[in-house]
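tokens incoming
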């Protein structure tokens, strides 16, 4: 074989090797994308499975009238955490900042458990929404287990956004075992941190083993609120549930429990 022929063979060999390497790189990238797509599908299937499990669990509460989840209401993942906390802690005093589906779920679950609380306060700034919650609770036979409080939004010193008026008066001398923070509304631009006053305003009312549940914890505003709370109140630890809209369960350090695994 002449030198020229050998060079041609070598050039062809290198060209083929280069094409094979390029093909391998493209195939690897395609398989990596496929792996990510498969992982995303499996994750969604896991989430849907958990939603179905929660729906089945809620069915055992035997609501007389349907209680819907999602949208402006709590989602299935929040409902699951609520059921876990209620079964484990059996809170005697409950404060809900923002009424709705959670109000009926809490009241009915504790009724089924045979331990209705001494005080269950459901606060809302919207009269119409509060009235709808009262009707839903009445349809399910638990309206007398809840004290509904209309607390309009009003300026709060030290905070740029309004917050519920008269919450302290509604609590009175009670010690709160469970706080559910699902209001005021925080989905519109400029309102992202409207729920920030919740922990500062109720901290002095909390029992020694209190649990605070923050809904919509996957949103940026709630994430910033959570950081602020944990910085200002280091006595709390947090468990994050990332599925759905996200839930943050805060417990006082040294007290076990608080979130389902």
């Amino acid at each position: 074989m002449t030198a020229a022929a050998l060079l041609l063979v070598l050039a062809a060999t290198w060209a083929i090797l280069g094409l094979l390497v390029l093909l391998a790189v493209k195939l690897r990238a395609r398989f990596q994308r496929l792996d990510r797509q498969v992982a995303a599908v499996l994750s969604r299937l896991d989430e849907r499975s958990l939603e179905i499990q929660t729906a089945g669990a809620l069915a055992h509460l035997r609501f007389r009238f349907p209680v819907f989840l999602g949208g402006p209401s709590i989602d299935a993942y929040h409902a699951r955490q609520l059921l876990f906390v209620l079964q484990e802690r059996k809170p005697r005093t409950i404060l809900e900042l923002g009424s709705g589906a959670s109000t009926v779920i809490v009241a009915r679950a504790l009724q089924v458990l045979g331990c209705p609380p001494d005080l269950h306060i459901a606060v809302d700034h919207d009269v119409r929404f509060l009235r709808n919650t009262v009707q839903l609770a009445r349809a399910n036979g638990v309206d007398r287990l809840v004290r509904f409080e209309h607390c309009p939004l009003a300026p709060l010193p030290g905070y740029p956004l309004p917050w519920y008026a008269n919450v302290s008066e509604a609590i009175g001398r009670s010690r709160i075992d469970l706080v559910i923070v699902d209001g005021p509304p925080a989905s519109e631009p400029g309102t992202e941190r409207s729920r920030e006053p919740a922990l500062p305003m109720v901290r002095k009312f909390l029992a020694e083993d209190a649990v605070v549940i923050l809904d919509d914890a996957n949103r940026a505003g709630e994430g910033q609120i959570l950081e602020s709370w944990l910085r200002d109140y280091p006595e709390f630890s947090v468990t994050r549930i990332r599925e759905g809209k996200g839930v943050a369960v805060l417990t006082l350090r040294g007290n076990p429990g608080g979130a389902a695994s």
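note: Residues 76 and 88 are 18 Å apart (CA to CA).
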